[in-house]
Structure to design on (342 residues):
């Protein structure tokens, strides 16, 4: 079974993104603004929609309605039907009308100033109401719908983005994704259907995903460490300092007292504040590694970071984790799945 879409012309939109200099509070404010604008757009589209059932918005539209801070489109990937200028609507099996059964052959509908691209699902929809009269697919359902277009790394990034420490939607956990995929498999089995395309990729992504991240950069950094054979670090580890204050470490190996931090901030006051924070962490006996956005985009620099972290791990634990060549993400996922099931 696959998601089937129709095409539609582009008439709307700008791509939203946040710079490294955007503070956490500013970023959340931008997320709320983006979400509220999308809610207004979807509510207006509902008013002129000619369907007999309420629209269920999906894919990129659903991500905007849930207020996620990252979407696959921010990577520069151009998938025309998934662009934010379209309203993506999914139709469930119980709502299929005759015209929906030929969705793959229909042109997109234009309701007033809105271009709508339809998808149809062979499994019942899981939805959330984000505002009165505005409904979209749930986080897990949206994640599964995206799976057929995304590579494994993008799928992990999207899953992480749905499990941020601070979200505008209901908090998600790894177990929520596991339970959802189990439900999909069980539904397909009971109804003698094929599971949706992409579900195996979702299964492979699960062991690489992490709850409680703060940014996509942290996800990228964690995946690089894993690919070189290093253990999966703790995400946002809570460290109580000797003065009683609490700090959150981006990526940590607590048994070795190693802290790896992503820092894309450039405001002067933030540098001064972070320098004090770093000094306090080191005073607790922790080794501190800082990774900037420039380093994260440079393979040679990132390899140097991995070598230094691996060397520190070996000195503090006696174990040499570093691989001579990095694994592919698929290989790393297979290793993690073996641990999960082993």
């Amino acid at each position: 079974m696959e998601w089937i879409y129709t095409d539609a012309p582009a008439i709307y939109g700008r791509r939203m993104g946040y710079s490294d200099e955007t503070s956490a509070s500013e970023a959340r404010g931008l997320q709320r603004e983006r979400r509220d604008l999308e809610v207004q757009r979807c509510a207006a589209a509902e008013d002129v929609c000619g369907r007999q059932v309420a629209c269920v918005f999906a894919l990129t539209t659903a991500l905007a309605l849930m207020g996620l801070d990252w979407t696959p489109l921010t990577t520069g990937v151009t998938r025309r039907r998934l662009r934010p200028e379209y309203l993506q609507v999914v139709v469930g099996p119980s709502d299929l009308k005759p015209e929906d059964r030929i969705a793959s052959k229909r042109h997109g509908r234009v309701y007033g100033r809105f271009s709508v691209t339809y998808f149809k699902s062979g499994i019942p929809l899981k939805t959330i109401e984000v505002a009165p009269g505005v409904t979209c697919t749930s986080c897990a359902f949206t994640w599964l719908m995206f799976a057929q277009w995304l590579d494994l790394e993008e799928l992990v990034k999207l899953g992480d983005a749905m499990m941020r420490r601070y979200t505008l939607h209901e908090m998600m956990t790894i177990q929520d994704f596991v339970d959802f995929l189990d439900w999909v498999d069980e539904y397909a089995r009971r109804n003698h259907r094929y599971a949706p395309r992409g579900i195996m990729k979702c299964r492979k992504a699960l062991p690489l995903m992490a709850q409680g991240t703060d940014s996509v950069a942290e996800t990228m950094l964690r995946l690089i460490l894993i690919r070189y054979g290093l253990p999966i670090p703790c995400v946002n580890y809570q460290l109580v300092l000797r003065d009683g204050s609490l700090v959150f470490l981006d990526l940590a190996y607590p048994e070795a007292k190693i802290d790896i931090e992503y820092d894309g901030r450039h405001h002067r006051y933030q540098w001064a504040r972070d320098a004090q924070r770093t000094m306090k962490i080191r005073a607790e006996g922790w080794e501190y590694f800082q990774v900037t956005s420039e380093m994260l985009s440079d393979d040679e620099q990132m390899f140097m970071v991995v070598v230094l972290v691996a060397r520190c791990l070996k000195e503090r634990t006696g174990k040499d984790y570093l691989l001579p060549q990095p694994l592919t993400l698929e290989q790393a996922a297979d290793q993690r799945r073996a641990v999960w099931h082993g």
